[in-house]
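Example 3.
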Amino acid sequence: MTATKPTRVVLYGAGLMGSIIIRYLVEKGFELVGVIDNNPDLVGKDAGQVGGLGRDLGLTVSADADEVLSREADIAVLTLLSLMSDMEPFFARCARHGVNAISTCEEAFYPRTTSPEITDRLDALAKEHGVTLTGSGYQDVYWGNLATVIAGSTQRIDAMEGVSSYNVDDYGIALAKVHGVGMIPDEFQREIADANVPSFAMNVPGWIASQLGLHMTGITQVLMPRYSDHPVKSTTLGRDIEPGQALGMAARATATTEEGIDIVMEVRGVVYEPGDVDLNDWVIRGEPTTAVSVDKPNTVELTCGTIVNRIPQVIAAPAGFTTLESLPPAKYLLPAK
Amino acid sequence: MTATKPTRVVLYGAGLMGSIIIRYLVEKGFELVGVIDNNPDLVGKDAGQVGGLGRDLGLTVSADADEVLSREADIAVLTLLSLMSDMEPFFARCARHGVNAISTCEEAFYPRTTSPEITDRLDALAKEHGVTLTGSGYQDVYWGNLATVIAGSTQRIDAMEGVSSYNVDDYGIALAKVHGVGMIPDEFQREIADANVPSFAMNVPGWIASQLGLHMTGITQVLMPRYSDHPVKSTTLGRDIEPGQALGMAARATATTEEGIDIVMEVRGVVYEPGDVDLNDWVIRGEPTTAVSVDKPNTVELTCGTIVNRIPQVIAAPAGFTTLESLPPAKYLLPAK
């Protein structure tokens, strides 16, 4: 009897999400062969300690990405940044090393709508090197297949309307930045609104339209900053958000399609105050109209869980920048015995 | 340019569900080539009128099943009865005519747990004739893929617990009968409880376990009749249900698996009183625990919608009694232009 060779995984980014993913990978029997991070507080530490396993794994965090990516990993998990413009060099580096990559980068969920040139470049590079690059996480299930599974039971769809909220403080500094956290109105206007930074909501209609075979004719976004009138503590910023500074924002993307189905996604990312909880609701309007609601989803754990469950499908997927609406839904992987 | 040949469909059973399915099929561009029913009130009527289209389709309801099934249909939609023991001859007739079949029969959703011999016989017959036989409907999405999509975002599952309720009065006499509607306690005990009629809940754990690759080690059901203390009008029975007679029942199936994941499904089917609404909730317990809830699902329309959306996948599926956890989720079909 031959033992199955475990899948070799590199983790690229050992921050808030990465540290959870270390534990999830170990629990599910993946072989963690490298952890990359350039944070001096992490470099040289054992990955088992970073992952809160309470034991060493005999593998230390390294800042030398090229060396770690040369360890013949099957896939790299990228928990780094939220925008494709920031992620392109990291995806490209994995591709050049012949390593598949799955990222929590929210825009990578379906980047063709918001960053088509970057996606095309990465797609060509991935095909050249025979690897799959993709994005996944909470959005893959709760902004994607949860809605399309309901669609599959519907006779006629007029509109699909999603709303989701999460605590910006749970996701690290990169995400806080693109939500304008701590900015005064002038800064928010200049750095977020005028810069027309694509919100995470903008990637949802394209993903859904692609899976359902719909053709988008247009998409617009509205960004709605939320300001505090009293100091609110932010662990990510390491300070209070003062009155008049943004706690984050709600972003609503509205897409129209040739087929007459509107797809609307509103994503609310703010630093929570006591009593705020995550929510995730969809209404599929038509015959019949169906509303589905997730009660206080743990978006952080669900992001990490989805990423890890997706690994075997991504390794098996066609080469290219392959978005996951084109595959069956993420499938639960059993923990290792 | 060649026009795509429309898919030819026979409807077998033109009752409550069948009449909706006539309209759904026409709206989605399927070619309805026959409607079978032996109800003398329906035989000879135009299918367009039975389907509430307000116009004739030039196709009349016929009681001659063998003749209608000889019209070279691609698939038959069977909206007849709820148990495999009742459905076997209908499935077999379709197979012998070389016609694929999809049924609203609730047990057909995953009949291997409750009727393995019948399923094996039909599986062999279907393979002999190169056709696919299956069951689908509301359960396919709301008792199946809704739960497994959530599972795909979860790191560790301890238990999956579903509860669903529907109005027995919406589904016709066959379904009312297996819920004990109108029975006094002695009758319920003898005809439902002692007969150990498999409840619809019994078919859910097997479907989920199969899709997730889990191995069931046992399954039990508890049937809990609900009695009224005042008269409740039942349109299906055409009379009041008197105090002391059953309005229906709740059935809870509990399955254990080798992998340590419990799968529990409770199905509440009663004649509704004013204020009662359908519900459909799942809790996936583990890391993390996630609860999802469907608000007042229109179970009748969702059953018909799922059946019609599933048709292309079923025609393309492997021959045999092929349960649908083995295929991707039902996919929304666009209405015809």
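Chain A has two domains: 8-138+301-326, 139-297. The longest helix of chain A spans residues 299-316.
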